[in-house]
Amino acid sequence: MKSRSLFAAMIMIAAVLLTACGPLEIQVEPPATPVPTFSTPVQIFQTPAPTQAPTLPTPSPTTLITATSSSPDLHLKTGTALTIDQVKMFNDTQGWGLGEADNNLVQRILFTNDGGRTWKDLTPAPVLANPPQDGLSALAHFSGIQNAWVTFAGRSPSPDSPTLVVWHTLDGGASWEKSQPLDMTGVQLEFQNPSDLGFLDEQHGWMMVHVGAGMMHDYFAAFTTANGGQTWQRILDPTTQYPVMSCSKSGYTFTSSTSAWITGNCPGLMPYLFIYHSADSGTSWNQVTLPVPDGKPANYFTQGGSIACGLPALNLGDEHELSLTLTCTNLNNSTALSWIYSSSDDGASWSQHPLPLPYTKIDLLNLNEGFFVGSQTTDPTAAGAVYHTSNGGATWAMTTSTAWTGTPNFINSLNGWVIAEHNQVTAFVHSVDGGKTWGEIKPVIGN
Q1: pLDDT of residue 31
Q2: From CA 247, how far away is CA 264, in angstroms rounded?
Q3: Do the domain assignments include residue 59?
Q4: For residue 319, what is the domain's CATH number?
Q5: For site-directed labelling of 83, which of 42, 162, 345, 446 has its Cα 20 to 30 A away?
Q6: Where does the pLDDT of residue 162 fall: very low under 50, low under 70, confident under 90, or very high at 90 and above?
Q7: Residue 242 burial (C-beta neighbours within 10 Å; 0-12, 13-18, 19+)
Q8: Does 275 fall in a domain?
Q9: Cα–Cα distance between 123 and 109 in angstroms, integer?
């Protein structure tokens, strides 16, 4: 395996907390509905450094560890201010989050019952007992109010990162069970950086673990589970004789128990789009050819030269449904265009529609309805805008312009949350009118 490249450095940088230069004012209107009450204008404060699947063996009960501890409670205390890094709401009031507190290097598993104003720290107690010196980052999949999976890795990825396990709760975080360790036998490790943890149903799940980078490669091990995360089977690793190890990965998902997808974003580095499909649960992989956008030449993806195309995001993976973002940059004038690609038949056919802004973070309620927060540029100081579609992206309506960008999470056509970002400072904001107005939530640990 080659020495760590710029990509590996980017992975390490992404694992370190962001720092900012000072407070930032972002003027927005308060929500039209008075509950919950927000401060206005929004102030973004300085944040701390940021067919059938294979049958797997059923572990004996002794391989599962319930997260109980008799040691002092290391969870965050009532009133502790939080930075919310990720949110997944399931109704107006209840949802999960990932977040952290000042001077604490363990990213926490959080739950709210009041729309994000107060949170309970539900991090598995054994994880808090002896974290590595550089702290821990969390990767989670939340499938409901009661059901969640999470794994933890060192914030500064290295070969000496803790052995990866996946924790699972069926009772809303009151108790956790630990999986058997992920098998990395024979895998050369530069670091361990997990991504793309997901579940199609209560039993079938997947996860990718990045283990090295170099020479335009993103080396990884891919895992699946067929028993709810108790045990994990490695289906891909850097010894695999497939081209899936090249390119920076942007997504890994299953759309049935046997149908898997891997996407990548490496515009200009290869004369084709990086998208691969497996129809046999990951045993074999084939490259997929997407139709070119309407009005573009047949060789738009492969012409090279001034046009560089990639797939920066996998927006939705669900049963037989897939949504991707395509972005193409004109290297002559540094302009970019983006499209949303969707399939409702597991990739047999695709629809594609242009996006009004090239750089977006999309949240789809389903293949028909969704929101995005986007910008015309990747400049972290650039203004943004919120858009909504109700026809699969055929048309997009701008709901408001903003001084920030960020990752949205909507539960319906009106109620949504965003981790707002501007120049490396963040705020947690909420809308109750479909993104027209936004107000800040200042989250804390509740009683």
Answers
A1: 37
A2: 6
A3: no
A4: 2.130.10.10
A5: 162
A6: confident
A7: middle
A8: yes
A9: 5
Domain that holds residue 109: 6-50+65-445
> What is the percent of the chain with per-residue pLDDT over 90, rounded to a whole number?
75
Full-prediction pTM beyond 0.90? no
pLDDT of residue 71: 64
Give me the chain's average pLDDT, please: 86
pLDDT digits (tens, 9 = 90+) for 184-203: 999 999 999 999 999 999 99
φ and ψ at 90, to 5 degrees?
Answer: -115, -15
- Work out the average pLDDT over 393-397: 98
How many distinct structural domains can be found in the chain?
A: 1
Is the separation of the CB atoms in 321 and 370 below 8 Å? no
